[in-house]
Specification:
The chain is about 30% helix and about 15% strand. The protein is of the alpha/beta class. Among the domains are: about 65-85 and about 710-835, Barwin-like endoglucanases (Beta Barrel), CATH 2.40.40; about 265-480, Dimethylsulfoxide Reductase, domain 2 (3-Layer(aba) Sandwich), CATH 3.40.228. Belongs to the prokaryotic molybdopterin-containing oxidoreductase family.
C-alpha cells in the first residue's frame, strides 16, 4: 500500500511506471489472465421474479406534440431527401475524406489532427464511440475509423454553449432544433439550472449546484425515490464512485444503457457459460476459420472490426452473414490504412475491395433463432453420417449438461416452420452448415440486431448451443463475441453499475467501506420509466446519455420526466433529454476523454474496458475550453460530499485529487483488478479474467449448459409488417452528427422508412411517397406521422426506420423475454400512404410523390 502511486502524488498519471509484466498474447496464444476468479457482476441466479411486467397505457403520440410546447420527439420538418444507389463497398477513400472533413469543420487542422493522432494510442485516449478492441501489439499511426473521428471531433468541439447561448434560447426553442443541431451547437461550458417556472436555463455556481442535489436527495421519503442512470461512455473510475455513492445513499436504482442493448447477451451467457461477456480476443478473430456475423452492421456501427475481418479473410476464413438488410460493410471493404502504403494505394483505389461475406442469409426480423436451429439440425444430420467427425463429443461429455434435451428439441423443430418463419430455405441453411461442419475454429459475433428482438435471449442461447456442439469455445480462434456499442459499457457493469448486484460484490463494498449496502433489487430502464410515469420517482440523475431518446415509447418516457422534482444531467453537450423536465433541472458540464484532466496531484488518466475484456488507460490531450468544466470524478465526489456528509467513510476529496486512490479501492473490491495501478500503466493495459476462454465455466453447476429454448410463433394480421429501428451512418447511438446514410444511399434526410417494393405496391405507396406508421401492441396503437417511403432490399413483411425518430412506436411494455430489453427489433406496424392537401408547401428541393 505505501508504495502505491495513490500515496505518492508525483506518480499520478505517469505512464512510465511499467512495474507489471505485460500479458499481451502472441498470435495463437491465450492471454495471461491471472489467478483471480471471473467476475462481471452479471448474476447467474435464476431470472428475476419481481419484474414489473405491466403493459401500461399507450401515450397520446399524436396529441403530445400539440399539447406540450417542449417537444419530446425530433421535429417533423423535412431536410431535403436525395437518394443514390446503395453502396456495396464500405470505407475506402471516402471514409478518409469524411474523417478529415469532420476534424477540419469542428476544430481546424492543428487541434483536430492532434486529437485524431492520439486516439486509441497506448499513450493517448480511448475513443468514446464503439467498444471494438485495439490491437495488442502494433498500432497504426491513424488507429481510428470514420465514426471514431466523428465522435472525437464532436467531443473536442470548441464552440461554447454557455450562459449567453441559454439566454438566447428557451427550452421551447431548443426543442424545435433537430438532434443534429443540438449536438453540433457546441460544448457546455458552465453549470446551468432550470428553476421552477422558468423558461430558460440560467447559470449556477458549482457549490450551489452540489448543495441543491444533496438537499433534494436528502428530502426524499426513501432513497428509492431517486434513479441514477449511466451511459456507457462513463470510464471506470467515475462509474465505480457513482455506484458506490448511490449504494451508500441507499438504493440499487442504477439503470444503464446496457439494459437497452446487450442485457440480452448477459442474460443468455451468464447461465450458459458463467460469464456475461464474450470469450474471444482480437487475435482469435484473425485465426478463425469460420465467422458468423448475426444482427450486426459493422460498417456503420463498428468500422474497425472490418480491418480484423479483412485480416481473417486473408488468413483463409469464411464468413457467414445473417441480417435482414444487405449492408455495405458485410459485402466489400477497402481498408483506409492501405491508402498510406504506396504499394497498395492505387490497387485499393481502383479495385473492388476485400470481399467480406461468403454466404449471406437475408433473414426476416426476429427469426434468427429458427435459422440457428436449422443450422444445428444440419450438424446433427452430418454427425449421424460421419460419427465423431462433425461434433466435438469429447467436449460435450466432459464439459456440458443438457445435450440430450437439445437434440430432442432440434428433432421436434420442423423444417416447414423454419423456412416459413425465417424466409430462408433449407438449402441455404445447409450451405452455411457445410462450412460450420468442416471446421472447429468458429466465432459468432452479434449486436443489437439480436439483443433487441423479442426472442433475443433465446437466439443467443442457440448460438451458444451451436458452439458447445462444436466445442468451439475456449480454444484459439473460436468463441463467442457479443460486439458492444459504447466504449466502456462493459466496464461500467464490471464496476458495479447494475440494478441487480451480486451479494459477493455488495459484501466486498460493505467490508471495504464499513456500511451495509441495500440488498433489494433496483429498477432497470423499463422499470425506471414505469416508476417515473407512476410518480414514484422524484429525482433523476444521469451520468451522460440521452435516456429520453434512447428508450422505447418516447412520449411515455416524457410523461414521466415531466413529473420529476429534479433532473440532474452530467454531460458535455446538449441533447433532447435535457429539455423535457419537471420542476427543476441541472446541466453539469463535464470533461470528455479528450480533455486534459489536471487535479491537485497532477494530470490524471482514467481507464476503460473494451469488448474483449482488456482494461487500458485513457489520458486526455487537449486543453479544456472552459475552466468551469469539471471531471466526472469531481462531479460525483462533489455530489456525494453534499449528500452523504460525514456518514460516508469514502475519501471523496482524495479520490478527486488523485485517481489512483479510486483504483486502489477497485483493486480491493473487484476480482481481477489486483495491482490495478501497476498493471494498467504498461502500454496496452491488461486482460481481465475470463473463465470460458479457458473452458472454466463458472455457472452454478460448474458446467457449460445447453439450453432448450421455447419457440413462439408470432402471427401477424393481414396488412401488418414487422418494423425494426436502425442507425444511420452519420450517428452513433442517439448522437446525430449529420443527416446522411451514404452506405444505404440516403442523403440529407432522416424521416424515412425502408420498405420492400412488393409491400409498397400492395399498399399503393409510391417511391418517396409520404406515409404514416401505426404500431400495434396488446390492443393499443401508437402513431408516427410524415415518413418518406423508400423501396429497399429488405425481406417482404419487414420494414425499418431510424431511431430515435422511430422510438415513439416501440411500446414500453414490449420487451425481450428474460432480459426486459425493449424490442426495438420487433415492432408490429401498419403503414398507410398520406393524401397531401391541395396546395401543401414542401421544403425547397423536396419532391414527395402522393398516391395516384
Amino acid at each position: 500500500m505505501d508504495k502505491s502511486p495513490a500515496y505518492d502524488p508525483n506518480q499520478a498519471g505517469k505512464t512510465e511506471q511499467q512495474t507489471a509484466s505485460n500479458n499481451v498474447p502472441k498470435s495463437g496464444e491465450r492471454p495471461d489472465q491471472g489467478s483471480a476468479p471471473t467476475s462481471d457482476n452479471w448474476s447467474t441466479s435464476p431470472e428475476r421474479q419481481t419484474l414489473d411486467d405491466r403493459v401500461m397505457e399507450a401515450p397520446d403520440t399524436l396529441g403530445a406534440k400539440h399539447k406540450f410546447p417542449i417537444l419530446a420527439q425530433p421535429p417533423e420538418e423535412f431536410t431535403g431527401l436525395k437518394l443514390t444507389k446503395p453502396a456495396t463497398v464500405a470505407a475506402g477513400i471516402t471514409a478518409v475524406l469524411k474523417s478529415g472533413a469532420f476534424a477540419m469543420d469542428y476544430e481546424g487542422p492543428v487541434r483536430g489532427t492532434h486529437a485524431l493522432l492520439k486516439m486509441n494510442q497506448k499513450d493517448g485516449f480511448d475513443c468514446s464511440s464503439c467498444a471494438w478492441p485495439d490491437p495488442d501489439d502494433h498500432r497504426s499511426v491513424a488507429e481510428f475509423c470514420e465514426n471514431g473521428a466523428k465522435a472525437t471531433t464532436s467531443d473536442a468541439q470548441s464552440d461554447p454553449v454557455g450562459p449567453e447561448f441559454f439566454a438566447k434560447h428557451s427550452l421551447v426553442d431548443l426543442s424545435r432544433m433537430t438532434d443534429r443541431d443540438l449536438n453540433n451547437a457546441g460544448r457546455l461550458t458552465h453549470p446551468m439550472v432550470l428553476r421552477p417556472g422558468a423558461t430558460h436555463y440560467t447559470p449556477i455556481s458549482w457549490p450551489e449546484a452540489f448543495a441543491l442535489v444533496g438537499q433534494e436527495l436528502n428530502a426524499l421519503k426513501s432513497p428509492h425515490e431517486a434513479i441514477f442512470y449511466t451511459s456507457g461512455k462513463v470510464p471506470n473510475e467515475p462509474a465505480y464512485l457513482y455506484q458506490l455513492f448511490v449504494r451508500q445513499f441507499g438504493t440499487n436504482n442504477l439503470p444503464d444503457c446496457s439494459n437497452m442493448c446487450h442485457e440480452s447477451s448477459g442474460a443468455a451467457l451468464s447461465n450458459t457459460t458463467g460469464l456475461g461477456k464474450g470469450s474471444v480476443t482480437l487475435n482469435d478473430i484473425y485465426e478463425a476459420e469460420v465467422i458468423l456475423i448475426i444482427g450486426q452492421n459493422p460498417g456503420t456501427n463498428h468500422p474497425r472490426m472490418l480491418t480484423a475481418l479483412q485480416k481473417a479473410k486473408k488468413n483463409g476464413a469464411k464468413i457467414i452473414s445473417i441480417n435482414p438488410l444487405l449492408e455495405a460493410g458485410l459485402l466489400h471493404f477497402k481498408n483506409p490504412q492501405d491508402f498510406m502504403n504506396p504499394l497498395k494505394a492505387l490497387g485499393v483505389l481502383l479495385g473492388d475491395g476485400t470481399p467480406i461475406t461468403d454466404i449471406y442469409l437475408q433473414v426476416r426480423i426476429n427469426s434468427d433463432q429458427l435459422v440457428l436451429r436449422g443450422l444445428m439440425k444440419c450438424l446433427l444430420e452430418a454427425e449421424a453420417l460421419n460419427p465423431g467427425q462433425v461434433l466435438d463429443q469429447g467436449f460435450i461429455q466432459e464439459y456440458t449438461t443438457g445435450y440430450p434435451e437439445l437434440v430432442e428439441t432440434l428433432n421436434n423443430t420442423s423444417w416447414a416452420d423454419i423456412e416459413e418463419a425465417s424466409g430462408i430455405t433449407r438449402a441455404q441453411i445447409q450451405e452455411a452448415a457445410n462450412l460450420v461442419a468442416r471446421h472447429k475454429k468458429i466465432i459468432t459475433c452479434w449486436a443489437m440486431g439480436l439483443t433487441q428482438q423479442k426472442n433475443g435471449v433465446y437466439t443467443i442461447q442457440e448460438i451458444v448451443n451451436m458452439h458447445f456442439m462444436k466445442g468451439a469455445v475456449g480454444i484459439p480462434g473460436a468463441g463467442l463475441c457479443p460486439v458492444r456499442g459504447h466504449s466502456n459499457v462493459q466496464g461500467d457493469r464490471t464496476m458495479g453499475i447494475w440494478e441487480r448486484p451480486t451479494d459477493t460484490f455488495l459484501d466486498s463494498l460493505a467490508q471495504e467501506f464499513n456500511f451495509e449496502p441495500p440488498r433489494e433489487y433496483g429498477f432497470d430502464v423499463v422499470e425506471a420509466v414505469k416508476a417515473l410515469h407512476d410518480g414514484r420517482v422524484k429525482v433523476f440523475m444521469a451520468m451522460g446519455g440521452n435516456m429520453l431518446s434512447a428508450c422505447s415509447d418516447t412520449e411515455f418516457v416524457a410523461e414521466g420526466m415531466r413529473k420529476l422534482r429534479l433532473s440532474v444531467h452530467v454531460t458535455p453537450k446538449l441533447n433532447r433529454s435535457h429539455l423535457v423536465n419537471g420542476e427543476m433541472a441541472l446541466l453539469l458540464p463535464c470533461k470528455t476523454r479528450i480533455d486534459i484532466d489536471m487535479q491537485k496531484s497532477g494530470q490524471q488518466f482514467m481507464t476503460c474496458e473494451n469488448s474483449m475484456g482488456v482494461v487500458s488507460m485513457s489520458k486526455g490531450v487537449l486543453t479544456p475550453i472552459s475552466d468551469q468544466m469539471l471531471s466526472e470524478v469531481a462531479i460525483v465526489c462533489g455530489i456525494a460530499l453534499a449528500t452523504l456528509g460525514e456518514k460516508s467513510t469514502v475519501d471523496w476529496v482524495g479520490c478527486t485529487e488523485n485517481y489512483d486512490l479510486i483504483r486502489e479501492y477497485v483493486a480491493r473490491t473487484i476480482p481481477g483488478f489486483e495491482d490495478f495501478n501497476q498493471k494498467v500503466r504498461h502500454p496496452g493495459g491488461f486482460y481481465l479474467p475470463n473463465g470460458p476462454r479457458e473452458r472454466n465455466f463458472t455457472t452454478e453447476n460448474g458446467k457449460a449448459n445447453f439450453s432448450c429454448t421455447p419457440l413462439e410463433k408470432h402471427v401477424l394480421e393481414p396488412g401488418q409488417l414487422v418494423l425494426m429501428t436502425i442507425r444511420s451512418h452519420d450517428q452513433f447511438n442517439t448522437t446525430v452528427y449529420d443527416y446522411n446514410d451514404r452506405y444505404r444511399g440516403v442523403h440529407n434526410e432522416r424521416r424515412v422508412i425502408f420498405l420492400n417494393a412488393e409491400d409498397m405496391a400492395e399498399r399503393g405507396i409510391r417511391e418517396k411517397g409520404l406515409v404514416n406508421i401505426t404500431s400495434h401492441f396488446e390492443g393499443q396503437q401508437r402513431h408516427a406521422e410524415k415518413f418518406i417511403a423508400i423501396p429497399y432490399d429488405i425481406p417482404k413483411g419487414n420494414c425499418a426506420v431510424y431511431f430515435p425518430e422511430g422510438n415513439v412506436l416501440v411500446p414500453i411494455g414490449s420487451v425481450a423475454y428474460k432480459s426486459n430489453t425493449p424490442t426495438s427489433k420487433f415492432v408490429i406496424v401498419t403503414v398507410a400512404p398520406v393524401e397531401l392537401p391541395i396546395g401543401t408547401q414542401l421544403p425547397a428541393g423536396q419532391q414527395i410523390a402522393v398516391p395516384a
